[in-house]
Amino acid sequence: MRVLVVNAGSSSLKSQLIETDGKVSLMKCLAEKVGTPEAYMNVSFAPDFHKTTYNVADLTVEQCLAKLLEVLVDDPESPISGLQQIDAIGNRIVAGGEYFTKSVVIDEPAREKLTACEELAPLHNPPADACIDMMRELMPDTPQVAVFDTAFHATMPAKAYMYPLPREYYDKYRIRRYGAHGTSHRYAAQQAANLLGRPLRDLGLITCHLGNGGSITAVNHGKSIDTSMGFTPLEGLMMGTRSGSIDPAIVTYLMRREHKSFDEMDAILNKKSGILGVSGVSADMRDVLQAAAAGNELAELAIDMYVYRIQKAIGGYYAAMTRTDAVVMTAGIGENSAELRERIFAGLAHMGMILDHERNDVTGQIGVNRIISIDDSPIKICVVTTDEEMRIARETDNLVSQLG
Ligand code: AMP
To answer: In what pathway does it function (predicted)?
Structure first.
């Protein structure tokens, strides 16, 4: 089945055309800075994936998607020449609230519930919904599926998902913890089970998705029982530009002292904090590692804080589970940075997570799922390459195939 995966963000669009039978990507697209005059869109096709850059200045996310469809039909390198050659569309949706506990084919009732979820992720869900509507209009007979970042965490017990706030806010607004990166945590857990050669249902795993955004999940017997992101993807770990968990009183204090508006405060916590805010260098871990190596003390502090918060989260989830068989590292930093893994696990050996320095080395190993702990480490450490778009494509194939 040929699935167009659409991953719409607040100011970005990621898309791939995936042939699910052979699990191969036929087209990759990344549009960034969407909605600004500097917006651009890179599109590339198999087998060489040479990028062509398109100017998409001031277009909305769904207009970028429309432009991508034009390219898909017109470009001589494209594997398709008409939209009818796309069998299904898989949409990544950040927030599914309490409405969606698994992926769904988007029919009329599902589309209405998606609108109800928009206020839970006001930056991410509305552009994704706009893309769904645009595609429904353009390709009304092509089935669309919604795959939710939150769905994997629907198994969290109330003690993990409730906040210690007055009950009325849950009753009125469904303010609770939903988590995120669910597709990635689910996949990382399954891949780790494969590496360990044991069924997922027998295992206790701590999965660490460490990319620009970051979250850690306790996966007990294949189910998410707790995760570090909360009502929104702002809670939990320190991230590229997000603060993660801080004393909530800081928010009201700063709003009073600096006369910040709600939107300004939102931007401070989501876009100006985290690794960028502390280091003053960059949100990109590679730049910050480089700056720290050159003696930049604030960059070093940012890395120290980043590592320390991950260690504390891993320790917390160790306590939350009845057993821990492995810690799984995935996403940009988790997969690629041997240095960060060294620093994280240097503080966790006393809990029985003992890194093998040679196996941890990335030379020639990028993209290889593997165990990087020593043979008799009581808790294994695994590295798994995440592929969110492929997961969404396969999930879409699964549901659409059941439609007959
Ligand atoms: P993601 O959001 O999963 O694409 O991850 C992006 C993050 O991964 C950025 O902070 C990158 O700097 C970081 N990253 C990617 N490769 C490396 C690497 N080799 N070493 C350190 N950080 C990396």
So the answer is: Metabolic intermediate biosynthesis; acetyl-CoA biosynthesis; acetyl-CoA from acetate: step 1/2
The pTM of this model reads 0.91
205 vs 148, 280, 348, CA distance in Å?
Answer: 21, 34, 15
324-348 pLDDT, tens digit per residue, is: 999 999 999 999 999 999 999 999 9
**What is the DSSP track for 206-251?**
EEEEESSSEEEEEEETTEEEEES--SSTTSSS--SS---S--THHH
Domain count within the chain: 2
**Res 123: pLDDT:** 79
Cis preceding-peptide flag for 47 (omega within 30 of 0): yes
Check the CA dihedral 361-364-369-374 and report its sign: negative
* Residue 201 CB less than 6 A away from ligand 1: no
> Is 332 a pocket residue for ligand 1 (Cβ < 6 Å)?
yes
* Nearest atom, ligand 1, residue 362 CA: 19
> End of a domain among 111, 128, 148?
148
Full domain range(s) for residue 92: 2-148
Q: Pick the catalytic residue: 129, 149, 325, 387?
A: 149
Residue nearest atom 4 in ligand 1 by C-alpha distance: 332
375 is catalytic: no
Does the C-beta of 312 come closer than 6 Å to ligand 1?
A: no
Same domain, 288 and 363: yes
Sign of CA dihedral 150, 156, 157, 162: negative
Ligand 1 atom 20, closest CA: 337
